[in-house]
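Journal club side-thread
Mid-discussion, someone asked how the predicted structure for our own chain would compare to the paper's figures. Pasting it here so we can look after the session.
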Amino acid sequence: VPGYPFEHGGRNWSDKALVHFWSLCAEHGCPMPDPVTTELVGPLLLMTAAPSQHSAHLQAIAAGQASWDLVCLDLPSSPMRRLKALEQADWVLLIQNQAEGTSQIEILRPWPGLQANLPPTTTDLKTSLVLSLDAGEMLLKLHRDHQPIAAVWRNRALLKTLRTLSCEDPMGRENQRLCELEILQTAQETLCHRLIQSGARAKQLIVTQIAREIQIKSLQLRHEQLGYYALTEATPPGQNEPIGSINAPIDAHFMIEPITLISDFFMDQLETNTQQGL
């Protein structure tokens, strides 16, 4: 993770260097790092009062040697929600929302009942390490100060795959929608470049939000493409099969919005910033 400090496994690159780096990665089809670990867990650890306390975790994240799951507890109003329900993780970032009292963020090892979608017990939580007793404030600070630059370029790989699956009719509705997304993606990349070069890092918030919208529309188009192919006769056999899986994970902030955690905090913040002309 080139943007992390030297002492935590990174290269301490500036935002300008990161923009250039991620754009080159997207241009040449290089794999992008897991956003959950690099853009959610890592920044949260760096935001704590003593980041050096988490140096081992940060080093492992920077080297791609640790996998993390995200679990949200909003008991008793809703069941436990996991981000990576089908994967094994080395560590868990646990966010507990309390209707009354504190909402906290903590890290711990996967507990015995996790695979059965059971919340941690009091015994399981004895070994946890609390990062914050104010989850809302910490997530707002994450959203304000750590907008992931790489998120803007993740959509490039997805759009390239959609292009290989698109119909050949240049006037077809599917192709027109894809062209619109490609134009919007190029515009967002250009805007991100200019914002970073001008030092307007705070406005990156808006760019990342539009990147999420591109992601949603791209995935909708992909589902429509796959549905169309499923109804089309394959001649020769295999002709209508997908070319390959789309390896373009969306940014960490958007990934947990379906869990209805961050969207509640972030959408209000986004509207406030927009009204203030940030």
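Post-session note: The CA atoms of residues 33 and 64 lie 8 Å apart.
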